[in-house]
Write a sequence for this structure.
């Protein structure tokens, strides 16, 4: 009889995952994992999801004992959308958008860099300049869209030029550790816009965004080691789970 393995129920499996993740965080390498099959990549992605959920719950529980600011983004989306649109936008569309913004160009290609530049522009001007929401269709929406698209085109045209593309490829290869760390920190710290921008929240920024920082390290690892679809899947599952919990009738 063929022996069936279920790694997701084995404690040693999670220990191995944590060690692999820790080694990558200390020494990021911009290479795909060629030793793992698609099945094992899926196993690892699910295992990392469980690890991320446990870590997030632990951090959230500790924060609740001391300080618990309101997540204004979650409240805004819940007020503007019904159950299905909320899960569609928050659980599928926004994860794809954020993974393009923060993880796609961990692997360098002109089109990847252009897409990241365009979506990051939309993200920053939406949050920092117009104090709006990514999914908000208001009087600034088309300005944000057009500005992001123009940046996308400019970056693509410039980075596609042969000598610039070659220089950027060398830069990515030589400074990947810096690029990976910056992607993690920017993803985490830009989530401060989910909260009210008062002095206390700004001082506590590294703590309030600690779950996002941990998520970014995992997403960056899966993007580089397994491919772009894996952090997208991980992000979708995470958002869909937490959004689904907010829809439960707890009263």
């Amino acid at each position: 009889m063929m022996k069936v393995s279920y790694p997701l129920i084995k404690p040693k499996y999670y220990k191995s995952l944590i060690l692999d993740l820790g080694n990558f965080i200390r020494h990021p390498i911009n290479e795909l994992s060629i030793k793992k099959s698609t099945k094992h990549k899926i196993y690892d992605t699910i295992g990392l999801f469980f690890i991320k959920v446990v870590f997030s719950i632990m951090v959230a529980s500790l924060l609740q004992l001391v300080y618990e600011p309101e997540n204004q983004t979650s409240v805004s989306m819940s007020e503007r959308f019904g159950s299905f649109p909320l899960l569609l936008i928050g659980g599928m569309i926004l994860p794809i958008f954020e993974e393009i913004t923060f993880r796609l160009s961990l692997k360098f290609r002109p089109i990847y860099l252009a897409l990241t530049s365009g979506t990051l522009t939309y993200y920053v001007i939406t949050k920092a300049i117009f104090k709006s929401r990514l999914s908000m269709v208001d009087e600034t929406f088309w300005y944000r869209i057009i500005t992001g698209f123009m940046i996308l085109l400019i970056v693509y045209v410039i980075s596609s030029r042969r000598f610039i593309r070659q220089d950027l490829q060398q830069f990515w290869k030589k400074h990947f550790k810096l690029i990976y760390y910056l992607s993690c920190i920017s993803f985490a710290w830009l989530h401060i816009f989910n909260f009210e921008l008062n002095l206390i929240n700004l001082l506590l920024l590294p703590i309030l965004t600690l779950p996002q920082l941990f998520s970014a390290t995992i997403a960056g690892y899966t993007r580089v080691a397994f491919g772009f679809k894996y952090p997208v899947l991980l992000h979708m599952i995470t958002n869909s789970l937490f959004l689904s919990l907010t829809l439960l009738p707890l009263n």
Observations:
- The chain has a mean pLDDT of 89.
